[in-house]
Task: structure prediction
Amino acid sequence: MFLYYLRLAAKSALATPGLTLLTVGAIALGVAVPTALISVHHVFAQNPIPEKSARLFNVRVDNWELASEAFNLEPGDPPKHITYRDMRGLMASDIPKGETGVAGARAFVFPEGKDARPYQTVIQLVHADFFPMFNAPFRFGNGWAHTADESRQHVVVLSADANERVFGGADSVGKSIRIGPQTFTIVGVLAPWQPTPLFYDVINNNNGMGKTREYFMPFDLIRDASLALKRTGDSDGFGNSNNDDPDAFFDASENNWIQYWVELDPGKRADYVHFVDAYAQEQKNAGRFPRPLNNRVTPLMEWMRVRRVVPPATVGLVVIALLFLAICCLNLTGLLLGKFLSRSGVLGVHRALGAPRSAIFLQRLLECELVGVAGGLSGMLLAAGALKLINAMLPPNVARAGLFGADGFTILVAIGLALAAGLLSGLYPAWRACRIPPAMQLKLQ
Amino acid sequence: MSTLKMTDVTKSYRTDLVETRALHHITLTVEDGEFVAVSGPSGSGKTTFLNVTGLLDTFASGTYELDGKDVSKLSDREQARIRNEKIGFVFQSFNLIPDLDVFDNVDVPLRYRGFSAAERKRRIEENISRVGLSARLHHLPSQLSGGQQQRVAIARALAVGPRLILADEPTGNLDSATAQEIMTLLHEVNDAGTTIVMVTHDPGCAAHAARQIHILDGRLIDVREEMPSLQSPQSLSARQRRQANV
Result:
């Protein structure tokens, strides 16, 4: 009977093409706006590494002085970065399965070839564990060994874009590239990799919407004065940062500039928190960390929330768009009520021929849902257009092909919203239509 | 055995200020195979009587048995099932569903009955053929004449094999020649054993019925009981005529 009711619903919808088109149009418009905004929200809010996000933790320790407050989104939070010396101290633990600092440094790259021109870029400073921890995919070669971290070897991993730009996409592993005044050996080339959001660096890289950096180097090369790497990105500190004395800066300053990540096996978090607190206590004993213990070992998705990767305005816009859809639904309720009552006679005939109230209710509701789906599909096309427009309006440093786009999620949202709109709009008219006594309906024929 | 038996049925319409009694203590028995004409002036309660009889409307008090079953207090679903299985409706304005062709219009009650596709097809073709419209199976109602539309309505009413046909002014919108054809068709249906209760203004049509009932101000006057002399041989059903050999 369901298919039969569906057929009747389709015929009824086609019997009033003008009204049906108006209804489809209203639903399309009502669905398109929230669909586009929900899709944008989804891009910000999605889990960028679902297969292991539960095992990845951002680590912070509170080294801040008593006389001032750290620059935080939430009062009472520890600083969002850690110092170089605290990173070294935390790396003494053997609890994590992997650990890496993440920071940026500015440098010039000098590609070979007579037509090639040097260009400035931001190098991503990371440790060897970065690549396996974050499931970075390699097209050629691999990351570097832990020994390269310790011995500050001049090795580099290129992104797919950088390899395309400098080597035309060929296998460049083993080749050399000049970065700053020194030459580096390429040990690996990533396959195209663009986590969204760029979770390991949501502070410096356009709130997580920036592009993957083109060059990855062992973190401690920042201490190699011969490379002249310039630290870049957000940092917070107090006291004398000793910027003129590199060794003093790294080993003794209270300048927080490193996002620090660990990978913990299930069940190891409590142990690691204990270790971090013990480290902080040790620092207190040494005269640092004047505040009460305020350390954080934050799971990745929680870190995304702490850093407000989803802009609060997006949530507000989604709410407004859903209210707009609700207003569309209210208007549609009036239209559908008018239509169903004007076709009361036909409903009366069905009742006379043996249709119970429930059948009439279902038939009318199906008609609403049918119109809703048509509106949803049209709305999805409108939403896809709107997302293209949003992509086109993005600044160049975050512009990537298809950052926002109509995918399976968008289709699901559009159809889901359309079905909900059809249901909300049609529930009352369908109920009213089935409640009229058949004798009255036939009188209206 | 009686097809329908009403006892003391009363129905009122009420507005804020006025209460109108549409049916006033109606007591009536219609036997199997009877052809009953219900006449009366406009507003007398004929259509209300037909609606109550067809379970299309409720009534305030009294009892109503249809085919031996008390239908006074049935649920909506049970009433719908009885309408589908036991009653066929023929309306003055035909009441075909405009979006559906002839085949699909006749199909509607069969769908609600839950027949298989093959059985539905057999019944549709058989009844459309019975009213002489096999060539118009896939025409929309708007492509048919009034007489043809009423034939489709009769085919639709007959398709489920009802015990009772309720006809509300079935010739009201037709010219006299077509009206005669429809009356002949209804006679044939009655001859086949289906009970018919027909509301009509037209004395000529009423004369086709074996029994005539008048409704006046919601009260029922059974002509057979009150004025037996008005019964003519032409007004007997075919079965009665055969039995009386007239």
Summary: Chain B touches chain A at residues 48, 51, 54, 56-58, 76-77, 80-81, 83-85, 89, 91, 93, 95-100, 108-109, 111-113, 156, 160 (CB under 8 Å).
